[in-house]
Amino acid sequence: MIVVMNSSATEENVKNVENIITSAGLHVHLSKGEETTIIGIVGDKTRVNTETLQAADGVEKIIQVTESYKLANRKFHPANTVIKVGGKDTDAVTIGGDQFVIMGGPCAVESYEEVKSAAECVKKSGAGMLRGGAYKPRTSPYSFQGLEEEGLKILHRVSRETGLPVISEVTSEEALKTAIPYLDMVQVGTRNMQNFALLKAVGKCGLPVMLKRGMAATIDEWLNAAEYILSSGNENVVLCERGIRTYETSTRNTLDISAVPVIKTKSHLPIIVDPSHASGVRAYIAPLSKAAAACGADGLMIETHPDPAKALSDGPQSLTFDMFENLCKDLTPLLSLQGRRL
Ligand code: PEP
Ligand code: MN
């Protein structure tokens, strides 16, 4: 349920409505816009008397929010959320505003030289962030599982050397604890989208979180997963569409490009697209990236490797550095049509 205040409502009117809600044991989520203030009610709404609220001074109307996610809901928070990443020991990027943030780097951290060369390509191309997997959630237990803390150290070092904020996936609460000091943003992967213990833990970790869509999750399940993070106290959540399982076998997954406008309608959270895991095929990354930019995504996550044929993970979908650089160049005029920049 949300309470929409009228345009002449005073601070005192807002405080009074907040008191009615909190004294019923419920939580308040305040969203102050230019014209109106919206007070979201989080918790068991049967505990609050709607008539009392409706009669309070300054109240314009009360709207029932039928969706189970509240804090992630655009009805609770009409303006787009803009999330800042980095800015202390690195450059700062903002996701969800005018900047279109491309997160580039290898699927897996293999060596310092590999990550350093990828970061130099990312930087030279004007992309905003470095990515790299240290904990790899591989389908087979016999595939390369990642360098873990050693990999995080490499990412951290390269990030500080290049000024690029760094993101990496955490696959467990233990990995999260280890990873926090090395990262600027944490990633929850597709396989953990409904790992609720991990979602609550990243909700308390103090870093912005990128939540990938579960490969078989509906958009509402995905937004409820984001709600776990938000309701644990972390407002800095970016969603990432990375393809879903369908009957199609020409691509690794099927990029659900419609997720971008659907999320923009249902939620205020930024959304980026990962065409690498969505397609699994190097040749499809550029066209899918352009489609994502054209339909309003806030950024991209793209895998790139100095020698994709030798990559320990996801070589077939990794771009060469030349391809990465050319893609960023090609995206620039498209983004400027929308008033956006890299
Ligand atoms: C990744 O980004 O490294 C990754 C494993 O992606 P996903 O969780 O989308 O498979
Ligand atoms: Mn990968």
Structure description:
The protein has 342 residues and is an alpha/beta fold. Helix content is 34%, strand content 18%. The strands form 3 sheets. Strands 13-12-11-10-9-8-7-14 form an 8-stranded parallel β-sheet. It has a 4-stranded antiparallel β-sheet with strand order 2-3-1-4. Strand 7 (101-105), helix 3 (112-124) and strand 8 form a beta-alpha-beta unit. Helix 6 (196-203) packs across helix 7 and helix 10 (282-294) packs parallel to helix 11. 48% of the residues are buried. The mean pLDDT is 97. Bound molecules: phosphoenolpyruvate and manganese (II) ion. Manganese (II) ion is lined by residues 107, 277, 303, 313-314. Phosphoenolpyruvate (PEP) binds at residues 107, 133, 137, 169, 189-190, 212, 242, 274, 277.
Short account of what is shown:
With 342 residues, the protein is α/β, with parallel strands linked by helices. 34% of the residues lie in helices and 18% in strands. The chain contains eleven helices and 14 strands.
Beginning-to-end CA distance, first to last residue: 38 Å
C-alpha-based Rg, rounded: 21 Å
Q: Largest sheet, if any?
A: 8 strands, parallel
Percent of residues in helical segments?
25-40%
Ligand inventory reads: phosphoenolpyruvate, manganese (II) ion
Q: Unreliable runs, pLDDT <50, ≥5 residues?
A: none
Element-by-element helix/strand order: EHEEHEEEEHEHEHEHEHEHEHHEH
What kind of oligomer do you see?
Answer: single chain
For the secondary structure, the number of strands is 14
Sheet with most strands: strand arrangement: 13-12-11-10-9-8-7-14
Provide mean pLDDT, rounded: 97
Strand content: 15-25%
